[in-house]
Structure formats: structure tokens, C-alpha cells
């Protein structure tokens, strides 16, 4: 199966694997029994969702991949921080522009002021009553 490193999704052993951009493949995966894609997927599952190492082991076992929870733990310790650093570097920096919206609301006949701190993309940052 040809490797695509452009963010494309590939199915390997029944798992949809996203080919991460260049940073993930620069790490050293020598002396590991499993392919890079399986290691990346296991570490991604552990850090992306609130799963235990045993839960990740069970999810991989359902796909026919026999990995112990201890192996997933070792992979997470070895690769997790490096993945996070490299992904953080590739994200665009957050925009610092925001504004304050003032809203008049009526609760039980009493007029109240409500202020919303909103960022430049329209996401509510904080609510002040």
C-alpha cells in the first residue's frame, strides 16, 4: 500500500488512518514491532478521547491488532509529547481580537444587563451578568 503523507485517510487492518503531515514521520520508529500507522493511531486514541490504556488495547483488539496496554502506555510516553509539540507548532496562532457585547434581557419582569466577551470568530469567551 503506497504511503500518502498529505492528510489523506487510508484503511489499514480495518482502521481508518489519517496520514499526518510531515512532522510525525520524522520520529524514530526503529525497533518497533508494529507499523508507524498503528502506533500513531493508538497514541491518538489515548490522547484524543478519555480512554484508559486498556480501553485502547480493547479497541485495537476489535480490529485484530494484538497489543498489550503496557505497549500502548510505552508508546504514549515515548511519542505523545513529541506529537503534541509538533502539532501545536503547526497550528496557526490564536487571534487576540475580541469585543464585548451588551444584551438587555428581562427576567421575571426585571431588566438585566448581560455582557458577552466574544472573539473574532464569534465564539463566546465569557459571560458577565
Short synopsis of the structure:
The protein is an alpha+beta fold and about 130 residues long. It has helices spanning about 35-50, 55-60, 70-90; strands at about 10, 15-20, 100-105, 110-120, 125-129. β3 and β4 (about 110-120) form a beta hairpin.
Any descriptors?
two-stranded antiparallel ribbon; 26% strand; alpha+beta; disordered N terminus; 35% helix; 129 residues; single chain
Give the helix/strand class.
alpha+beta
Helix segment count? 3
Round the mean pLDDT to the nearest integer and report it: 80
Radius of gyration, in angstroms, nearest whole number: 22 Å
Terminal-residue CA separation: 57 Å
Count of DSSP E strands? 5
Largest sheet: 3 strands, antiparallel
DSSP helix fraction:
25-40%
Shape estimate: elongated
What order do the SSEs take from the amino end to the carboxyl end, as H and E?
Answer: EEHHHEEE
Q: What's the structural domain tally?
A: 2
The strand line-up of the biggest sheet is 3-4-5
Strand content: 25-35%
Q: Are there runs of 5+ residues with pLDDT below 50, and where?
A: 1-6
Structural commentary:
Residues 1-6 have low confidence and may be disordered. The protein folds into 2 domains: 9-90, no CATH class; 98-128, no CATH class. A hairpin with a 2-residue loop joins strand 1 (9-12) and strand 2 (15-18). Helix 2 packs across helix 3 (69-90). The relative contact order is 0.11. By secondary structure, the chain is of the alpha+beta class. The protein has helices at 36-48, 53-62, 69-90; strands spanning 9-12, 15-18, 98-107, 110-119, 124-128. Helix content is 35%, strand content 26%. The strands form 2 sheets. The protein has a 3-stranded antiparallel β-sheet with strand order 3-4-5, with no helix packed on it.
Amino acid at each position: 500500500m503506497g504511503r500518502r503523507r498529505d492528510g489523506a485517510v487510508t484503511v489499514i487492518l480495518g482502521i481508518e488512518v489519517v496520514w499526518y503531515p510531515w512532522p510525525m514521520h520524522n520520529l524514530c520508529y526503529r525497533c518497533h514491532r508494529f507499523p508507524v500507522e498503528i502506533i500513531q493511531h493508538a497514541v491518538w486514541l489515548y490522547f484524543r478521547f478519555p480512554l484508559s490504556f486498556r480501553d485502547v488495547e480493547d479497541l485495537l483488539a476489535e480490529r485484530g491488532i494484538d497489543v498489550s496496554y503496557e505497549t500502548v502506555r510505552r508508546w504514549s510516553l515515548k511519542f505523545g509529547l513529541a506529537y503534541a509539540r509538533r502539532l501545536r507548532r503547526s497550528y496557526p496562532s490564536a487571534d487576540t481580537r475580541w469585543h464585548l457585547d451588551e444584551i438587555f434581557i428581562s427576567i421575571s419582569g426585571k431588566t438585566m444587563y448581560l455582557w458577552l466577551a466574544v472573539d473574532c470568530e464569534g465564539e463566546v469567551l465569557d459571560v458577565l451578568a
